[in-house]
Amino acid sequence: WKFDAISSFKIRAAYGATGNQPPANAKYTSLVGSNIDGRAGLIPSRRRGSADIRPERTVEFETGADVVFLNGRASLELTYYRQNITDLFLIAALPPSSGFTEEFINGGSMRTQGFEASLAFTPIQTKTFRWFGRLNFFKTSSVITQLTTDPFNKGGFATFLGTFRIEEGLSPTSIIGADVDANGNTIILGDAQPDFQMSFNSDFNFKFGFGDFSFYFLWDWRQGGKVINLGKLLTDLGGTSADYEDPATAENLHLPENGTVKESDVAGMTLGPARLNLLGRTTAPYVEDGTFLKLRELSLTYNLPKQWISSHLPNVSYVRIGLSGRNLLMFTRYSGYDPEVSQFGNVAIGRAIDTIPYPSSRSFHLNLSVGL
């Protein structure tokens, strides 16, 4: 087929399989130092070696299409991927009678799939002006497809403060707390994984007789993704939360409809005292939506005219002056400093716990570049 509007159309696919070696010394029971009655010695560690542990195996399939159209003024890239991990490394608890507390095992399987789209376009291009833009979209989700151990919680704090539930059929970033339904079943309070993420950037170039200007901006949008806001708990304890004196309702306490805690339990109370009063019975008031829109970067660049440079600075090829800023604006309903937290490392679980770290810094830069 021939389409005048389409310059190029490609379909691509890829398949790959990799392995991941077990953690160092996972097969062996290591020895740790001890001191008994002032005598140095060695004793077995609390983690038992697992002689039968096998490497993790990851199999991934990816397919997509690349389209160039409008005489090269626009291009579209579409990608779908699916990843299956088997023999997942897990740390399993052991009965006290074994003499150990835990060991590494191959404990399950996980499936991750996602979709990515990227649209690049040049709506306007003349001798004196060019506008280029790019819109990116990506969505990913994971689910534990098999778990050979009993379901367990994973997190750095007690369950009633909010933690993550590792259970077959759930996302590995599912958040739970103290909330249960009328039958005593644990209620899932949300997922730390965003619904989707997008970014949009544009570059505008102007050419004048007195030089060239370039204006650039980048917006980031994250939709969804729950955050455990323990910073609000800390400010509640200090009586300094911004909404501490607001009337408490089921809506602003984020109480699950199928939970056992009701608005009548805190009738007549304000939000701060109500949240503290319910601590241990519900974690929902401290689990918030992490949606945000950020102006990530903004810059303006000026290039001196080449004719002026050649006549006044013969040994210089270009002179460029730039002014830029990062993290200039943020729009969010999240009550903490920044829903984009990474206090406990760049892992999915660590990104979703907020205990009032330093927020992202806003920075401004002035630069001068000279080419020889």
Question: What is the fold's blueprint, element by element?
Answer:
Blueprint: E1 6-20, E2 31-36, E3 39-44, E4 47-48, E5 56-69, E6 74-86, E7 89-93, E8 102-106, E9 108-125, E10 129-147, E11 152-154, E12 163-166, E13 174-176, E14 190-191, E15 196-208, E16 211-223, E17 226-229, H1 230-238, H2 271-278, E18 287-289, E19 292-303, H3 306-312, E20 318-331, E21 353-354, E22 363-371
Parallel strand pairs: 4-8, 17-21
Antiparallel strand pairs: 1-5, 2-3, 5-6, 6-9, 7-8, 9-10, 10-15, 11-12, 12-13, 13-14, 15-16, 16-19, 17-18, 19-20, 20-22
Task: Sum up the overall morphology in one term.
Answer: globular
Order of helices and strands: EEEEEEEEEEEEEEEEEHHEEHEEE
End-to-end Cα distance, whole Å, is 50 Å
Quaternary structure state of the chains depicted: single chain
Helix and strand composition category: mainly beta
The stretches of 5 or more residues where confidence is low (pLDDT under 50) are none
Q: What is the number of helical segments per DSSP (H or I, 4+ residues)?
A: 3
Tally of DSSP β-strands: 22
How does the major sheet shape up?
A: 10 strands, antiparallel
Helix content: under 10%
Q: β content, as a range?
A: over 45%
